Amino acid sequence: MAEIAPSILAADFGNLQRDVEMLNASSAGYIHVDVMDGVFVPNISFGIPVCEAVYKHAAKPLDVHLMIEKPDRYFEAFKKAGAWGLTVHYEACTHLHRNIQHLKELGLSAGVALNPHTPIELLSDILEDIDLVLIMSVNPGFGGQKFIENTYKKIAKLNALREKFGYSFKIEVDGGVNLDNAPQLVKEGVDILVAGSFVFNSNDPAATIEKLKNS
Ligand code: DX5
Ligand code: ZN
Known about the structure:
By secondary structure, this protein is an alpha/beta fold. It has helices at residues 16-25, 48-57, 75-80, 96-105, 151-165, 182-188, 197-200, 205-213, and strands at residues 3-6, 31-36, 62-67, 83-89, 109-114, 132-136, 170-174, 192-195.
């Protein structure tokens, strides 16, 4: 059984409070907040003020996914805006070790995301320092994309490494998650399933979250 982190990117921004309250009343474990800068990814979503607005109504921890270049410039600002944890991209950080230490000093959960083309082996010297590994199962930038099948293999490998060395990081998967792929993702070792469009485009988002959780 995994925790569910619905992505607010797929919510109705005109009714953000309503949608956050729906998540509060659901069995979601986190609220996933997708920040895009139009440079690291070919899309702009929202930034610090929207994170603050979500936090104001949220009763669940904010799992903030930074799809931005040089994310360390904004760690303090996102902490102030209510983040429980920040996930940076391996591909966007030249000094990843320093960035992880910075997140820990701030008392935030320290996550690292990998794009679909980035092998997990590149994290081997830092795995013991991080709290969460986010495996992208689509190319970041947009909600509603198709799940990349190679993700299963990647997660299985990462889970095997975690077991072999006794690491404590959580494994999160993000992109194209639905009830068809969730059971196998959980079987391969995923702890947190991010789901955007599958949750928010369903007739009963709270029931969909519950189904994903039980998958
Ligand atoms: C993609 C984002 C995802 C996205 C997931 O760049 O990181 O969190 O919102 O949306 P779905 O579940 O629709 O693929
Ligand atoms: Zn995300």
